[in-house]
Backbone:
């Protein structure tokens, strides 16, 4: 993809982040859920402007926004470094990609790789040794994408959607030598 600009999101982007989150989560998982009620409720709760604002306001997270040359938002990523994966990460010097959401019209165009390369740069600049992320165990395409970027599976984590329990695969990639 050409002419893509990735920037840190700011508070004025919160409504846009909420909208992209709702849309991309729906597009990616609407056909693969066991309870429409739980799915709809999750989307309603996880992607409200209030919830995004709360996440935005923490000192251990960063939102990145990818825009085309006209300023249209195409994707976003949420990074966090609050050590919530310490139980599975042997090395505690990591940053987590909690979300990477690309609008459906831009799937398979290289935008995900572009976003991940930006994440790797940010992680290296921050002195992190690893990047980790959780991916839905049944999302084979996403798992293959991350494996192509040299991520390795290291365990499973629970993902709750209402009263439905699903599992994500926790993956990690070493991005720099130990310090």
Residues:
């Amino acid at each position: 993809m050409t002419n893509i600009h990735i920037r840190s999101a700011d508070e004025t982007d919160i409504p846009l982040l909420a909208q992209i989150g709702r849309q991309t989560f729906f597009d990616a998982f609407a056909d693969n859920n066991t309870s429409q009620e739980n799915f709809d409720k999750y989307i309603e709760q996880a992607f409200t402007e209030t919830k995004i604002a709360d996440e935005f306001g923490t000192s251990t997270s960063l939102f990145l926004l990818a825009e085309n040359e006209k300023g249209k938002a195409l994707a976003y990523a949420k990074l966090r470094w609050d050590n919530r994966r310490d139980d599975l990460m042997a090395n505690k010097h990591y940053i987590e990609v909690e979300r990477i959401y690309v609008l459906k019209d831009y799937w398979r165009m290289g935008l995900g790789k572009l976003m991940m390369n930006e994440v790797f740069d940010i992680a290296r600049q921050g002195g992190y040794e690893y990047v980790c992320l959780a991916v839905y165990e049944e999302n084979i395409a996403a798992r293959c994408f991350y494996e192509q970027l040299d991520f390795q599976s290291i365990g499973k984590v629970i993902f709750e959607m209402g009263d439905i329990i699903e599992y994500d695969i926790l993956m990690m990639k070493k991005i720099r030598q130990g310090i």
